[in-house]
């Protein structure tokens, strides 16, 4: 799918006190090792699997499903969907993923969408038959508190005719900035070289494209 806009951002859009509330909340909860597709429960991985996983993704996460967080973020997802010209149909959001990246941690190239929709035993489950359509990342940390950790896109994975292959999204460095992009767009989080970078990610679902 070729797009005019591969992402849409809002700079310093979320109030600092909301960012701080999310960060405090995230640090109060027990985190877990982040995994990527195909790995399952990290507690059941053997040494070789853990080593392989760490080559692709190395970060710690906390899951959040609090309505007040969605209420802050959803208006920007809806606005970006229209302003960017995507107009994707979506009606459900997965749990929010609060992520902590410390020195040396990263998430290598990937896209958030799957090649098949979610299939649940309960066909009335809110995500049954749906796919990830719109991803959103919120910057929760002050850029003075860390180095590295930039969000980078590779548009040529989706559009070989794109003149620029890789673009670091510096627009969302200010605290409270957020970016929305189609979940099939390839991206990565570069290694953090100093400090700690906190972010919030939400995947928004709808029925498959036709």
Walk me through this protein's architecture.
The chain has helices at 16-28, 47-56, 67-83; strands at residues 8-10, 32-33, 57-58, 60-64, 92-93, 96-101, 106-110, 131-139, 146-148, 151-154, 166-168, 178-182, 186-189, 192-195, 197-206. The protein has 210 residues and is an alpha+beta fold. Strands 1, 2, 4, 5, 6, 8, 12 and 15 form an 8-stranded antiparallel beta sheet that branches. Strands 3-7-13-10-11 form a 5-stranded antiparallel beta sheet.
Q: Please, how many helices?
A: 3
Q: pLDDT average, as an integer?
A: 94
Spatial separation of the terminal alpha carbons: 12 Å
Rg, rounded, reads 17 Å
Main beta-sheet strand count, sense and barrel state: 8 strands, antiparallel
Assign a percent range to the helix content.
Answer: 10-25%
Which structural class matches the secondary elements? alpha+beta
As residue ranges, the low-confidence spans are: none
Strand content: 25-35%
Number of strands: 15
Oligomer: single chain
Order of helices and strands: EHEHEEHEEEEEEEEEEE
Q: Outline, from the CA principal axes? A: globular
